[in-house]
Each structure stands twice: as structure tokens, then as C-alpha cells.
Amino acid sequence: MNRRTSVPSAHDPAAQPGVLSAFGRSIWRYKAFYVMLLPGLLYYIVFKYIPMYGVIIAFKNYNLMEGIWSSPWASPWNKHFLTFFESPYFSQLLTNTFLISVYKLIFGMVPPIAMALLLNECRIKWFRSLIQTLTYMPHFLSWVIIYGILLALLSQSSGLLNRWLEDAGGTAIPFLTSTSYFRSILVGSEIWQNLGWGAIIYLAAIAGIDPTLYEAARVDGASRMRMIWHVTLPGIRTVVIMLLILNLGHILDAGFEQIYIMYNVQVYAVADILDTWVFRTGLQQLNFSLASAVGLFKAAIGLILVLGSNKLAKRWGEGIW
Amino acid sequence: MRRMKIVSVMLAVFMLSCSVLAGCSSGNSSNGEASDANKPANAAAGNANQPADAAADNGAPAKDAEGSGASAGAVKLDIIETGNNLPTPDKDFIKQAIDKAIQTDLNLTVYASGDDYKNQLNVRMASGNFPDLFQVPDRAALKQFVDQGLLLDLTPYMDKLQDVKGFIGDESLKKTTMGGDVYAIPKAPNIPYNTYWIRKDWLDKLGLQPPSTIDEFLNVTKAFAEQDPDGNGKKDTIGLTGSKFSTFAPIFGAFGVGDPNTFYVKEGKLVNSLYDPAMKDALAFIKKLIDTGAVDPEIMANTGLQHQEKAIKGQAGIVWIDWPNLSKDQFTEQIKKVNPNADWIQLAPPKGPGGQYDGPFDAGGTSGMYAIPKALENDKEKLQKVFDLLNYVSGTDGSQLVQFGIKGTHFNLEGDKVVPTDLMGKEAGFTWLYQFTGRPEMAYLQTKFAPQSKYIEFANSQPRIQILNGFLSNPDGYNPADATRFIEEEFVKFIYGKNPIAGYDAFLKTLEASMNFKTYMDASTKQLEDLGYGK
Q1: Matching InterPro entries, A to Z (chain A) (predicted)?
Q2: Mean pLDDT of chain B
Q3: In this structure, is residue A25 part of a structural domain?
Q4: Any chain B CB within 8 A of the CB of A303?
Q5: Nearest chain B alpha carbon to A47
Q6: Nearest CB partner across the interface for B301, out of A55, A177, A299
Q7: In a domain, A52, yes or no
Q8: Under an 8 A CB cutoff, do B122 and A283 touch?
Q9: Is the pLDDT of residue A320 over 70?
Q10: Which residues in A lie closer than 8 A to residue B22 (C-beta atoms)?
Q11: Are strands B360-362 and B104-111 parallel, antiparallel or unpaired?
Q12: Interface touch A158/B125, C-beta < 8 Å
């Protein structure tokens, strides 16, 4: 097809071919980019979109022998959602999940930024790399090991900390079995685990700030604190907000593995989250339909939150897309 | 220039993290458990030569049997169960002997933790990757599998399983019968292992007698925590430890009640312990015991064998545990290493107002049951081999093999008596993994654990409350996970004084109202009455 001529042709009933061909031309023109996009697109289609077909088991009474397609539909269609919503623990589960997650988000955001700033300001190179290595190591520890460490430190009967407390004349504190401490332990250990790892991202962002800005600030007589406040922090604002938005999508993932390993009957009231409940009720009892219903519910909430927060961020001029 | 390089490295890390984050955010959380699905497949890779070699000893020209296995009739059987310490196939003389006897190529995979096993099994079932024979974790799981139509109904094949039937006894099959059909093979009846164990040396040091009533028990527990029995000048000992509510099993027993939510027959009537009037008294006493501050504050958080560890380390003076975990040679060694004077003895259940029972023992329980997937129905040859295997380990030769090892190497026969050789202790520790239909418990243990035989006798001869939960399956509309959680949580509140025991009746009401417990009670009562209990 050629460029649209200025003379409207009488024998062309469709008014659109011009637009279509423009689209086609633009694809043709950037064909190299589209070819490069293809593998990524394929990955998402094959591994992310096609498996979504399985989501329909949330609306079926999934039977392993009959498979996804021939399992009977649930009646009413939202049976498994109702089971979940009507569980006596529903509101408690949701509250716990939400609170633990929000605590982790809020209290977990500042320490890595502070860490990154400190590392950035540190001028002794070997000390800096030492600290950085030390702080990001815990990221690679599994929760089982971290729980072992916590147990050795905080156990009421044999923990080091409680031994000290008792020797100093105090009484042992049930850190791991008391409802008043458990969430703090969860959040604390998560922060400890991810402090250094989180700082890497911020450090990278800081490294990307144009050095001439610092030079200019120095010429204007800015102190170090001033430079941090007026150059470094605004420089990483985009990254901070982006990470926040991405994390909001996970607001209903409060950390299954960590909690499953650390909780016990005495702290269920503050520690039982959606995922642990699904594990006990859905997966351990072969009730996969219930498990996917809850998964779908979580995904929906996460999607709403991501879209909403992005919109909000855009209003401040910082959205991801 | 150097700075630029750092920047680019940093950026690379940053981008990587971003893409990881993005990948996670688009993932679906409900499939997190599936990641290990392929694990069981690799356990016995590279053992194709084994049956051939074994057969070669027999003079059979089976050198080419590896590969498909079909040519020489060696059928490959995939078996999974819980267990540990399985040797590699080339050192696994039991596998080799069985393969030789019934022309199979066994591929046994074991999982150390019960929870792990359950997950793996569920994943394999869900993905259609069925093992040919597998352990069913419990009765609830059996019902789930049957409901899903995953298990082969064994009823029509019973005449092919004569040896098995003779070995485990007809009565045992009740445990795996569902709606009149047999869906799994239970192991031969087992015996109870658990008792209270107490530090004799601590008792002597404080000048105390082993407690025989629950009041004495309370005093001893208290003394162990307060009077420094280990003599290190510090108040760092615990009176009593254990895992969860089983810590108090004999205390419940002393009031004549079973552990929380167990069914038993009392005075001719079927009772659930939650509705037993004596339950309140038992809880009140346990609360009194905990109020002394002498009970391990972490009993509810003790998972696995943490209570055993506390006992071995010399922290606790009384522990509710099974005899193997405190009296097997490896543990007595550890105990002596910590303190050469440590002396653990078993304690008879203390007497209370409801009698003297060393906790509950499940009449319907088994130490394991094994099922065959329905998918095997059409593979007659394989199915026959599975039957052959089950019959073989139930017959005289096979049973001796999986109990004691190879005749002439690990044991010798003197008349009917099995005499172990030194090698048995060294090499044959894992043979129980192949006891798919169980073993004659008492005789087996006395032979294999001769040094522990007095502990075995003791644990076995204590009076127990016979509970019936092993016969039950959960009705629809009852969510056992929620109900169990509710019961445990409320019980914890009662015994730790967070809720007054006066509120017990209100607890039962809530349980019935919000957990559908009434449905469960009615269904369970009916199931048990159908079996002839409490009538």
C-alpha cells in the first residue's frame, strides 16, 4: 500500500485501511525491536497466561482423577469463595495478613535506604565492602536457619538473651510464644534478613545520580547533610516509589515460609495468615479448588492495589507506567 | 572511568532485581508448593545393574536385563514412604534380595519428615505421576484419596493377597475399610512406645521417690525446677517437657480422659474427651501444674524432637517420649557425654481420681498403611508384582528378610529362634523401610533391640485408654483444620490461665456453633456405632 493520496478513492469502502497500514508500516519499520520482543512475549504467554486457564478450578469441585476440564462445576459457582469468606477465621486472617504485610512494608522501607546512604557516604573502601558483604549475607539464609538462630537467642527456656535477663535478675520473656512479641519478631527478622540486599538497589540508584549535581552543590557550599537531603534523596525518589508500588501488589503475601516455620498454637491469633490457612485447609487436605479461590482473591486485591497506587503516584508525577 | 564501571555493575544488579521483582509480582501464589515436584524421581537412578547382578549370582543369564527390564521380567516398581537412612541401591542388600526373589526392580524413595512426605505425595497425585505403591499418611488422607477416586479398591483382589491377610489379621483390615471396601493395606498391629521418663539421679539427689500419684508428680516437677537438681548453683532446670498436649497424656489419663478430641468407650458408652465431664478437672490440674512454673514454657512450640534435645542436654527432669528416642544406643551415648551420671528411668503413669492410664492408644491406628493407585488397574503385570511384593514381605522368608536382614549374614536360625550377628546391628538398621505390611512387633523388637527390651516391655504393659479415632473419617462440611486450631487455641488459654475453666461450657457451645462440630460428632458416633462400639 502506498501513502494515502489526497484524493479519496471511490472504490475503497472501508475508511480504515490508512490507519491499518500505518500500524503495519510502523511494525515493519521497527521489526528488529519486535523480533527482540518476541521471546519475552512468548515466555509470558506460555508460562504466565496459558497456565491461567487453571484458575477455573476455583469455580469447580476439582477432582484429581477427572482433571481440570471434566471436574464438575461448583454449585453455587462461588462455593469455595463462600467457604473462605464464611470461615470463622476469615476476618482474623485478613487482619493478620494485612497488618504483618504493612508493618513489613513501612518498617522495612527506611532501614535499607539509611543503610545505602551510610554506605554511600563511607569513604574507607575496604570497610564499606566489608559491611556491605556482611549485611547482604543473611539474604541467602533460609528461614529454617534464621529460626534456629532466633531460637538460640530468644527461646524462653534456653535462649541466650533470656539467660542474660535472668542472670541480671529479670524474668524470661516469651518472645516466640507470646502474642505481644511475635509480630515484632517477624518484622524484625525480615528486616534483618533483607537489610543489605535492599540497600543494593538503592546504592545502584544513588550511583546513577549525575555527579555534576554534587559538584554544583559543593560549589554552593552545601554540607554533606545538605547534599544528602537535596541531591541524593530526590535522586532516588523514583526508585523508592517504584519499589513501593511493586511491593503493594504483594500486600497479601505476608511471607508464608517465614511464618509457617516460626508460628505455633500460642500465636495463631496474631500469626495465622491467608497462606498458612490455605496450606492447612486447602493443600494439605487436597482441596485445590479452595486454595485457588483464595489465590484468585489475593491476586485480585493485589492488582487493584498496584493499579490504584500507580494512579496515585502518577498524580505526583512518579508512576511506573 | 572507574566510577562509570561501578555504576554499570550496580545498574546490572538493579535491573536484575527489578526483573526478579516483576517476575514475582505477576506470579500466582497458589502454585508455590509445586516446585519440588520432580524430586522423587531421581532417588535410585543408576541402579539398573543391581537386579542383573543379583540374578547373576543365581546362575540366571540376566546380564542384559538393564534398560527396559521387560526382557528378563524385572518389573520396575516405584515406592514412596516416610523414613530415613535408606542406603544407596548398590549397598541396599534388602532391595537386591527382594529383586532376586520376585524379579522386580524396586525403586524406594523415603522422606524424612511426615509433612514433607504429605506435600510430595499430594503433588505427585495432583500431577498424575503415581508411584506404584505408597504410604498413606493417615485415615483423613485415605478418605481424601478415596473421594478423589485415586485408589485401587483392593476388595476384589483379596484372594490374591492371602499371605498379607494371614500376616496382618482380618481385624486389621477394618482400619483401611471405607464404605465396605478395602482401599489400603495396614501394617500389622503395633504396640505403644511412649511413657514418662524421669531422671533417677535427680530424684536421688533431692531425696525424692518416683511419684506415684498426680500430687506427688506435681511436687517432683516443682522440685526439679526449683531445688537445683543438677547442682550447678543456678535455677536453670525444667521440671517437665514434651511436645504439645501429649506432654500431659498420662495426666489426662489419671482423670480417665483421652487427649483432646479423642473418642473412647467409657462405662459402656461412647464418649468424646471434649464432652467428658472429667475433662474440666484434668484441665484444672494441668493449669495447677503449669502455674508452678516448672513446666517447659515452650511445649506448644516444641516441634520435631526439641523436647528430646532438652532431655538429653540435661535441662529437663521429666519428659513424655517414646523409648527409642531416649534409650537407643546413640542417645544413651549422647546423654552420658553431657553428664556421665545421668540416669533416665521409665515412670509408671501417676494415679489420679480417674484411674491410672499412660495416655491413649489408638485401636484404629496403624504405624502405616499402603495403597495402590487406581491407575495401576490396567497394568496387570505390574499390579501382580505389587501383590507379589506384599505377599513376599508377609511370608516367612520375606518377613525375616525385612525384619533382620540376610540369613547367615545378619542373623542365624537356632531352631525357631533368630540369633542376631554383630553385622545386624551395624548394617540392618534400615530394613524396616521394607516392612510394608509391618512385623510381629514384640518378637521383632526383642530381637533387634535386645538391650532395650525391658523398656519395650514396660511401655507395652502400661494401661492405656483405648481410643478409636483411627476408624473415623471426616464428614463433608466439617473443616478439621479450623476445628483443630480452635480446640488447641482454647485449650492453651485454659491451661495457661488466659481463660477461666468456668468458661469451658461456653467453649463447647462456640465449637458446635461456629465449627460445625455437631456434624462431626454425629457422623463419628454413627461410624463407630456401625463398627459396634458403645452399644
Answers
A1: MetI-like, MetI-like_sf, UgpAE/MalFG_permease
A2: 81
A3: no
A4: no
A5: B27
A6: A177
A7: no
A8: yes
A9: no
A10: 246
A11: unpaired
A12: no
For chain A, say whether B378 makes contact (Cβ under 8 Å): no
**Cβ neighbour number for residue B101 with a 10 Å cutoff:** 18
Interface of A with B in 92-111 (CB under 8 A): none
Task: Read off the DSSP letter of residue B210.
Answer: P
Distance CA B164, CA B184 (A): 12
User: In the 8-state DSSP scheme, what is residue B379?
Assistant: -
Residue B451: DSSP 8-state: G
| SS3 label, residue B98 | helix
Cβ atoms of A187 and A107 within 8 Å: the answer is yes
Strands ordered across the beta sheet of B194-199: B238-241, B316-322, B194-199, B344-347
The pLDDT score that the predictor gives to residue A4 is 47
pLDDT of residue B412: 86
A121/chain B closest Cα distance in angstroms: 15
Place of cell 483444620: B481
CATH of residue A219's domain is: 1.10.3720.10
**Count: domains in chain A:** 1
pLDDT of residue B128: 83
B148: nearest CB among A64, A89, A174 = A64
pLDDT confidence tier of residue B480, bands split at 50, 70 and 90: confident
Q: Give the β-pairing of B269-272 and B360-362.
A: unpaired
Q: CA–CA separation, A119 vs B2, rounded Å? A: 18
Query: Which of B139, B66, B61, B108 minimizes the C-alpha distance to B369?
Result: B139
**Closest-CA residue in chain A for B143?**
A285
Residue type, A105: L
- Interchain proximity A265–B488, CB inside 8 Å: yes
A305 touches chain B (CB under 8 A): no
Segments forming the whole domain that contains residue A270: 88-285
Cis check: omega of the bond before B350, within 30 degrees of 0: no
* A156 within domain boundaries: yes
CB-based burial, B229-256: b 16+ in 10 Å, e otherwise: bbeeeeebbbbbbbbbbbbbbbbbbbbb
Higher pLDDT, B239 or B66: B239
Instruction: Outline where B270-379 has alpha helix (H).
Output: 278-291, 306-312, 324-327, 329-338
Q: Residue B183: its pLDDT value, please?
A: 92
| A200: in domain | yes
The pLDDT, as a whole number, for residue B169 is: 84
Min Cα–Cα distance to chain B from A65, Å: 6
